[in-house]
Amino acid sequence: MRTRDLVELVRLPAALTVPGDSLAGAAAAGWPHGRRTWALPVASACLYWAGMALNDYADRELDREERPERPIPSGRVRPAEALGVAAGLTAAGLTVAALVGGRQALGGAVRVAGTAWTYDLLAKQTAAGPACMAAARGLDVLLGAGSRWREATVASAAVAAHTLGVTVLSRGEVHGAKPSVAYAALIGTAAAASAAALPPRRPGRPAPSWRTRAVRLTGAGLAGVYATVVGRSQLRAAGNPDAGTVRKATGSGIRGVILLQSALAARSGSLGVAGGLLLAGPGARAASKVVSPT
């Protein structure tokens, strides 16, 4: 297997959309793992890459007809190699999570990995597929929250709602979709943006300071940018749901989660993290022109 084939198999650049999951969850929960939290995105990226390799392994027969250019049907990667990559990356992700947060983080990573493997091997082609994928990304957010997962439920639900819409729409990448599917994805985007725009409820707290107001405005502004960027492409797909337009909307949704993660981090008061995540956006967009994220 050549390096280029491995990069394409795991959709390597698409992992730029993953670090914000656990960081948004950690920010919402008050950084329960301290400085070690910064290693959690490595665990998430490994699990994401594993899921991509496993996806191509599971879809190898279908891809012979619909995506013959992919690594396995084109003969550049053997199915056993793809399965081995998926297993190895899953083990790496679980190991990193355990080193960062012990049994608590390992348990969270196991849930993410288990949901991802269930999606690829069992649920993908069923009606439960999109919900299963959404659950995997929502659980990835909770991975960053550790034992304080309740404080990160809004962030988790927002990322899950976004993922649900993008996954449902992505089913039309080859043959096109119905307008109603694109509108459903648009509703998911609106729900995620609304969750990110609303400030956390903290009963009994004093009147907000100027910094708190600035944080809220920043979070709401970023949520608005996210809704505009992702929603606009989904609206185009609703008006013209052919395969090419749906594929572009799916790519926009995959990259657009970075904007959502940034809004969620800002909502929790972590403006530095929000700014850092935004820097990944242009990189993800440029990389998607080299290696397809879908």
Query: What is the H/E string?
Result: HHHHHHHHHHH
Unreliable spans are none
Number of helices: 11
Strand residues, percent: under 5%
Molecular shape: globular
Please give the domain count: 1
Number of strands: 0
Helix content: over 70%
Estimated radius of gyration = 18 Å
* N→C terminal distance: 20 Å
Structural class: mainly alpha
Main pleated-sheet profile = none
Overall pLDDT metric: 91
Short description:
With 294 residues, the protein is mainly α.
Textual characterization of the structure:
- The protein has 294 residues and is an all-alpha fold.
- It has one domain.
- Helices cover 74% and strands 0% of the residues.
- It contains 11 helices and no strands.
- The protein is globular.
- The chain starts with a helix and ends in a 6-residue tail after the last helix.
- The mean pLDDT is 91.
Sum up the structure in keywords:
single chain; about 290 residues; mainly alpha; 11 helices; about 75% helix; globular
Write the layout of secondary structure elements.
Layout lengths: L2 H8 L8 H11 L10 H19 L1 H7 L12 H45 L5 H17 L7 H18 L8 H19 L12 H30 L3 H25 L3 H18 L6
